[in-house]
Amino acid sequence: MKSYKDLEIYNLSLDLFFQTHSFSLKMPNYEKFELGSQLRRSSDSINSNIVEGYGRKRYKQDFIKFLVYAHASNLETVNHLFKISRLYQELSEEANQLIQSYDALGIKIHNFLEYVENNWRT
């Protein structure tokens, strides 16, 4: 692994960030700057924490800490999407598809976190 760009969780989270950003812009104007903004920030945080953690990979505990932050931001993103799916019926189907994708990403982050905890050598 030469770069964080080699991590599957990085690539998935980046792709989901772009999808989620576009999705958030479909919300009513007044909501784009409330719940939409929270959604964009939490989605971005997943990817950013993976990158920052990788940048600290030399320090195993720092790497773990940032992967935990990424996992927590993933859960936050799912929560925002759930609220959107309930508030805006017209966005429900797309929100639920994103939730499924973030659930799958969450499993991958969790598995990578366990790998780092048990196998990472600094």
Automatic annotation (TrEMBL):
Pfam families assigned: 23S_rRNA_IVP
Domain of life, per lineage: Bacteria
Protein name: Four helix bundle protein
Organism field: Cecembia lonarensis (strain CCUG 58316 / KCTC 22772 / LW9)
Organism lineage string: Bacteria, Pseudomonadati, Bacteroidota, Cytophagia, Cytophagales
